[in-house]
Amino acid sequence: MKRNCRRITAIMIAITVVLAVSALYMFAALEMHHDCCGDGCPVCAVISAGRRLAETVLAAVSALAITFFALSMFTVRNMRKDHFVNKTPVLLKTTLLN
Predict the structure, then answer these.
(1) Per-residue pLDDT tens for 67-93?
(2) Which of 43, 79, 82, 90 keeps 20 to 30 A from 7, CA to CA?
(3) CB 30 within 8 A of CB 63
């Protein structure tokens, strides 16, 4: 039950992040040619905040992908061939007789 709650929570957070980034991109696309009032323009501030959010999300996803890749390579590297060969019943019997 607890695992399902965590999974649902993770899915909801992912959906929220995707919707937030999508909404910011839509807003930026719709307001690209707005009448800018220069410094302190609220539309430009929202577009800038959206760009920073998208960069942060991209950095987090990239870090997660690199971490996952490194851990998978570390796990595969540690699975040596002799680790599995020593577990056969014939070899276990041979080592017991020696």
Answers:
(1) 988 888 777 666 655 555 566 667 666
(2) 79
(3) no
Q: pTM surpassing 0.85? A: no
- What tokens appear for 5 in the block? 């709650």
Residue 27 and residue 51 in contact, taking contact as beta carbons nearer than 8 Å: no
**3-class secondary-structure state, position 32:** coil
Domain residue limits at 82: 2-32+40-97
Confidence (pLDDT) at 40: 85
Q: What is the pLDDT of residues 13-31, one digit of tens each?
A: 889 988 887 888 888 888 8
Task: Classify residue 88 by its DSSP letter.
Answer: S
Task: Give dist(CA 9, CA 59) in Å, integer.
Answer: 22
* Residue 87 structure tokens: 């577990």
Burial 65-87 (b: 16+ CB within 10 A, else e): eeeeeeeeeeeeeeeeeeeeeee
Place of tokens 């056969």: 88
